[in-house]
Design a protein that fits this description.
The chain is of the alpha/beta class. It has one domain: 3-Layer(aba) Sandwich (Rossmann fold). It is about 40% helix and about 10% strand. The protein has twelve helices and seven strands. A seven-stranded mixed β-sheet has the order 3-4-2-5-1-6-7, with helices on both faces. Strand 6, helix 8 and strand 7 form a beta-alpha-beta unit. Helix 6 packs parallel to helix 7. It binds adenosine-5'-triphosphate and magnesium ion (MG). Magnesium ion binds next to helix 1.
């Protein structure tokens, strides 16, 4: 069983959208997938249960010692189950230890819960953008992270903070657990539009992360919001669109080990739809040297 947390300290980059669509694409490829919604706001669960997810979920596994299997619920898509956050997850997220992750062993609770799980090929964990002890506990639990990055200014700043955290967590994991280092499965560039700033940041991200970056990007499209409002993964709502193709390629690249070579189109060459704000922000000026400034 593989386990991957979709994470980025920046909000609104497409973490929940990525968790939902990566999971749905993995199911299309014949995998049994569990999405654990570890964000108290429950965006990933809501994207699969438009009328509301059950109030019992991860919080109950953490607080009441229930098994993940007991709080997992099937979705309308066979092979895709979800553990909703549960109504009390906001309470738990501060009680998992300090943000450094050293909190009387509580940071390993999610790890223990995952170890007791069977019957899935991949567990995809959606995380909140806030650096809570719960998020650190997730980094102790999963084997890999997948980082969605939207190409806006300051995209890399948050990622650097995340990398520092991953390094610290990896050292701790290697020293005190049987987990081994935490690895970056891949970097997925999301919400790409035709603006110059989008192109430049994409190339900055590719220069920085090298072949960890999936070849195909996810274009910005209003279809994502439409799909979300219907409680359907975009890959089912608009199955032939560029967003669906992007998430399918991401799923294949993830299964191939997070390395490129499976994705078809070069970045940005997949007919990205004219996106919100596309070309409208007057960013014709050329360089954005501050993007990589440390
Ligand atoms: N490629 C895209 N194009 C256009 N809109 C998108 C795209 N991906 C996601 N969105 C929309 O942007 C909003 C934020 O996306 P999402 O909730 O996935 O981000 P997030 O990183 O999980 O946010 P948060 O940090 O608040 O958890 C949602 O309304 C979603 O439907
Ligand atoms: Mg989210």
């Amino acid at each position: 069983m593989r386990s991957v947390a979709v994470t980025n300290a920046k909000g609104g980059v497409g973490k929940s959208t990525t968790a939902i669509n990566l999971a749905a694409a993995l199911v299309e490829l014949g995998r049994r997938v569990l999405v654990i919604d570890a964000d108290p706001s429950g965006n990933a669960a809501l994207g699969l249960f438009p009328r509301g997810a059950p109030g019992i979920g991860l919080a109950d596994a953490l607080l009441e010692g229930r098994r993940l299997a007991d709080v997992a619920v099937p979705t309308a898509h066979p092979g895709l189950d979800v553990v909703p956050p549960g109504d009390r997850l906001g309470l738990c997220s501060e009680q998992m230890g300090s943000v450094q992750g050293l909190g009387q062993g509580r940071e390993f609770r999610i790890r223990r819960l995952l170890k007791g799980l069977a019957g899935y090929d991949v567990v995809v964990v959606d995380t909140s953008p806030v650096l809570t002890p719960l998020n650190v506990a997730i980094l102790y639990a999963v084997a890999e992270i997948l980082i969605p990055i939207d190409p806006c200014v300051a995209a890399l700043a948050g990622v650097r903070a995340l990398e520092d955290l991953v390094r610290t967590v990896s050292e701790f994991r290697e020293e005190f657990t049987d987990a081994g280092p935490l690895s970056i499965a891949g970097v997925l560039i999301t919400r790409v539009d035709r603006t110059l700033v989008s192109k430049q940041i994409e190339s900055e991200v590719r220069a920085y992360f090298g072949d960890l970056v999936y070849d195909r990007v996810i274009p910005a499209s209003v279809k994502f919001r439409e799909a979300y409002a219907r409680g359907t993964p975009l890959i089912h709502y608009d199955p032939a669109g560029a967003g669906a193709l992007g998430y399918r390629d991401a799923a294949r690249a993830y299964l191939a080990g997070g390395r490129p070579g499976t994705a078809a189109a070069p970045a940005g060459a997949d007919g990205a739809e004219a996106a919100e704000g596309s070309g409208a922000d007057g960013d014709q000026s050329g360089e954005y040297p501050f993007l990589m400034a440390s």
